[in-house]
Amino acid sequence: MATPRQGPEFTLEIRRTFAARKERVFQAWIERERLEQWMCRDQETHDVRYTELDVRPGGRYAMRITTPKGELYVLEGVFREVRAPDMLVFTWGWKKTPVAPGEQSESGETLLTVEFFERGDSTEVVLTHQLSPAAGPREGYDKGWKGCFDMLARLLELEG
Prior knowledge:
Layout: E1 11-18, H1 22-28, H2 32-38, E2 47-53, E3 60-66, E4 72-83, E5 87-97, E6 110-119, E7 122-130, H3 138-159
Antiparallel strand pairs: 1-7, 2-3, 3-4, 4-5, 5-6, 6-7
């Protein structure tokens, strides 16, 4: 089970406003085809495939992210709370292969809370990622989530 940590070194909060209605933004977080277009695609060359997606409290998700170098990241978690179209709470834990000398192969389980707020015709998303010491540098998660949000903004723009 994810153990929330306190303090700024273990809590990452990202706020982003998207030019789309709240229901559309929320749906982009729970539909497999749309998730594969933006989630964990902070680098466009990543190949992202969900192998499991059961969006309900207690439901699991799993995805495989393959890089052009042949690195494989397996990401798994469990949905703790699903309140459409206002909030998602889920665990997040990844494994990587192959592992370079001195590199960790697992992140440990962490906890994500994603909140959706209507702002006129736009939606503000507030992502709070509670990290663990095993998760690695907070800066890497910050960069990754910002890249994912860039891809989500592009997807929502293309969908119009």
